[in-house]
Design goal:
Number of strands: 9
Helix content: 40-55%
Low-confidence stretches: none
Distance between the termini: 73 Å
Number of domains: 2
CATH class of the largest domain: Alpha Beta
């Protein structure tokens, strides 16, 4: 059971979350405690002059938290709406935030495509451990729109670390979002499996020739790149339009030099 202090703190935080300021919260909580009251008595109780208390009441009215008695204008008493109304308003605000978050999430690939770093500093983040590795692995799809570029060792990334179960979830999510991927990878059983399914999985796979095998790999998407180091395991997220542009240029040259025979 909550203490009186905890109850007051909960109400205070709820009203603050709705955007109420100090005087408005004080007026609401005071009126809630004393019930229907003439404006003059309420002003005296709160030690606020009448012109100012009308201003505070007007702000509460904007939030839908004010109620007056049905008496004639000059005999009306003031009171606030029940705390259940506060809860309803919080619920509506939460619904709006969820709706806005969904819209922003949907627009994120387009917003990132428009983003230009300019003179902003380069951002480099390192993610360690399998949980963080997988989190950023799926985040690639959240922030991508039309195309993803991948280069390196699929064998070390998929069979060697994340496993085919996670890879298949990733592919399914990519297909659902209709994102095409160009995969430039070293040969091996994983490469053959991917290549065989290219036609049905919105992918073109090309095998790297004339290069020594290395276990790392990278993804290029939106205006970002991730370098995967599955042996650590570690992932490095780089946000720098110039570095990304350089790696895209390198990828495109390698892509052309490794056309499927």
């Amino acid at each position: 059971m909550l203490s009186q202090m905890e109850i007051k703190a909960t109400l205070y935080n709820s009203l603050q979350e709705l955007g109420l300021h100090e005087y408005e919260i004080e007026l609401y909580t005071t009126s809630l405690a004393i019930g229907p009251t003439p404006i003059a008595i309420l002003a005296k109780t709160l030690n606020i002059n009448r012109p100012n208390i009308y201003k505070v009441i007007a702000e509460l009215e904007k939030h839908g938290l004010v109620k007056f008695s049905e008496r004639k204008k000059y005999n009306r008493t003031f009171m606030v709406e029940s705390p259940t109304v506060v809860r309803e308003l919080l619920h509506k605000k939460k619904e709006k935030l969820v709706e806005q978050d969904t819209k922003l999430f949907t627009a994120l690939p387009d917003l990132l495509a428009l983003y230009r770093q300019g003179e902003l500093p380069t951002s480099v983040k390192v993610f360690e451990g399998k949980d963080q590795f997988l989190k950023i692995f799926f985040q690639v799809l959240d922030e991508s729109k039309d195309e993803i570029l991948y280069c390196g060792s699929a064998q070390d990334l998929v069979s060697g670390f994340i496993g085919w179960a996670e890879e298949e979830k990733w592919i399914a999510k990519r297909l659902k979002k209709k994102i095409f991927i160009k995969a430039l990878i070293f040969g091996g059983t994983d490469a053959e499996k991917l290549k065989d399914d290219d036609a049905t999985q919105m992918r073109e796979t090309r095998l790297i020739k004339n290069m020594l095998h290395f276990p790392t790999s990278f993804h290029l998407y939106a205006n970002k790149m991730i370098i995967w180091q599955p042996k650590a395991p570690m992932a490095m997220l780089i946000e720098d339009e110039y570095i990304v542009a350089m790696f895209k240029s390198i990828f495109n040259v390698l892509w052309e030099n490794n056309k499927n025979q």
